[in-house]
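re: that chain from earlier
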Amino acid sequence: MTASGALFLVGGKDGRNADRRLLGRFVELCGGSSARVLVITTACSEPKRHRQEYAKAFSKSGARGVSICHPARRHDADDPALLSALDRAGGVYFTGGGQVKLVTTIGDTQFSARLRERHRQGLPVGGTSAGASALSAVMIAGGRQKRAARWSSVELATGLGLLPGVIVDQHFRQRNRIGRLLAAVIRNPAMLGFGIDEATAVEIDAAGRVAVLGAGALTVVDGSSLVGASLADAAKQDAPLSFAEIRLHRLGRGWRYDLTTRQAGPPGRQV
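^ sequence. v structure.
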């Protein structure tokens, strides 16, 4: 990990209208009672509702200030007012919705460039659902659920690039997305796959140490030792992918994972 800001990825159902525990932890990362949180609602289809919900949720979670912005077109992401809000923010949080919509709107803009710069300088960045997936460098753009891993199980695209070595999927257990995450990693075996359940967050620090929070679990797919069939043939025939030697972890609350060593450990033990 070369960036110094924390990443906070929620698998959906982030509790904004319920207990707000996950959002409360993000506020702590952003400075606690002095935190100023910038919420980007570009991914969602109901920005007015999300504006109201997140303004209330972050305020009740202890943030000193909450700014809600909805850049809807690419030129909006170059707006000096938005860039100024980013410069003042103590943390940035992306809502759920559609990750393709989010990335095609703000990717490769002044906003995304400054976001990466500020993250390298220590700015915490978080997101839920689509907002979590979009932080990957290689992003899951879509795919088929509840089926065996095939070449066509997953659609991949370029993400925002804040998490270069990990492909993130969300609503993981609830929508049975193991097949498409396996397919994503088999097609990119040097990368890890993170499948995050709803009401669950993973917190990643500057050293690449991962902590699991919330009610569900993190599924880690590690393809570094992958032995598999010809991907060219698999892509042509779209048959179920053959593979061996994939490492799989399912880590509940309090478990740890290290992105550098690719080792997992239970609560109370450092990895």
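The domain at 7-265 is CATH 3.40.50.880 (Rossmann fold).
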